[in-house]
Amino acid sequence: MIYKDFKELSLSRLGMGNMRLPTKLGRINQKKAQEIIDYAMEQGINYYDTAYVYHMGKLTYLGI
């Protein structure tokens, strides 16, 4: 993973946008979403786009 210094942080140049997490019947498929996020973290991604409006603010229970 390539990182870029930003202020006092070292952020991955590749980020993960979470607007399109997998859904099932209109709700986030928690198991699949957690698998995707875990994989991204294992690959060194530490920059996540988690705007509150994504999935009507329901990302917080995934630990993001």
What does this structure look like?
By secondary structure, this protein is of the alpha+beta class. Helix content is 20%, strand content 25%. The protein is built from 1 helix and 6 strands. The chain has a two-stranded antiparallel ribbon with strand order 1-2. A two-stranded parallel sheet has the order 3-6. Strand 4 and strand 5 (27-28) form a beta hairpin. The radius of gyration is 13 Å and the shape is elongated. The mean pLDDT is 84.
Give the quaternary arrangement of the chains. single chain
In terms of per-residue confidence, which ranges show pLDDT below 50 for 5 or more consecutive residues? none
- Fraction in beta strands: 25-35%
Q: Strand sequence of the main sheet, in spatial order?
A: 1-2
* End-to-end C-alpha gap: 20 Å
Per the principal axes of the C-alpha atoms, what is the gross shape?
elongated
Number of strands: 6
Structural features:
two-stranded parallel ribbon, alpha+beta, single chain, 64 residues, two-stranded antiparallel sheet, elongated
Could you give a short description of this structure?
This protein has one helix at 30-42; strands at 3-6, 9-12, 16-17, 23-24, 27-28, 48-49.
Fold topology:
Layout: E1 3-6, E2 9-12, E3 16-17, E4 23-24, E5 27-28, H1 30-42, E6 48-49
Parallel strand pairs: 3-6
Antiparallel strand pairs: 1-2, 4-5
